[in-house]
Amino acid sequence: MSEVVGIPVAIDSRGTRHGRDTIDETPRPFDGRLPLHCGGCPAPVSSRRGHQRRSEGGTISVSPHFFLKPGTEHDPGCPFDFRARANEIARNHRGAVQRAGDYYELLLPDLNQQTPSEPATTRRQSSSIYREISTDTSRSKLIPVLNGAARIAALLRNYQDDEEAAGRFQARHQGSTIAWKDFCVDAQTDITAAFHRSLAHGYPLAVHGLAGTIETKSKGEQPYFEMRTRRPPRQGGQGSSAGPRAVLRSATRDSFRAIDAAPDRRWLAISERWRGYPSNESPRLINLWINQWWQLTTWRD
């Protein structure tokens, strides 16, 4: 991991925005259009090409990035002031997110711990459909963690899922740490590898994506509700993105109340009980049963 979390976007003298992927181009599209400033505030920035450098721990890969010029600072509230935004998440989600040196940890509760305060619907055993419902964590434990994870996911999306930015976050579960890229995945990508790792190592998986249409389905005579994540088409317009699709299911429509209220939002859910269909080994769908509205959180990009 690089020691640098760079600024992902800069703006040239003509007002054109440039992502960090343009820095290694020859010629660079912003050459001749200097000076550059931060994509989120007027602070002046420079660019640095990707390179390797040595350190006490070995060779470090430094990705191309924009960085503040010496003696300058971001404006307060700038979305690309990484340290300020990460510290803000830890401060606003105290108890769910903590700073540990140069890292930020999401503190996961025991997601399989039964609690006396759970509603009776979480313990229904009348049929196979209700035995699949996966809510065992109390509302008071899960909501702060979901909200903290969503804020981290939103920050990383703002950084275009940059590896250096993602590398600053991790999840802590039962005394072990999980790299963020292994713990939290975007359903618009192929989530197969992360799904298999979570099963193999027994840790929860967080999935987030674009809310899709909620449909009424049935299993035998029992109706249920299903939401499949929207995904962009493949390049060239041929079908959808590769990999299994993430699906949320519930016996009650009320579980999707936040999505009903704002269908253009993104959602995030965390569980150890994602299941593959038709099998965990070769899934076409990765399903999670929920039964309360607070088992997922939503936000607007």
From TrEMBL:
Biased composition range(s): Polar residues: 112-129
Name of protein: Uncharacterized protein
Annotated segments matching region Disordered: 44-67, 112-132, 218-246
Domain of life, source organism: Bacteria
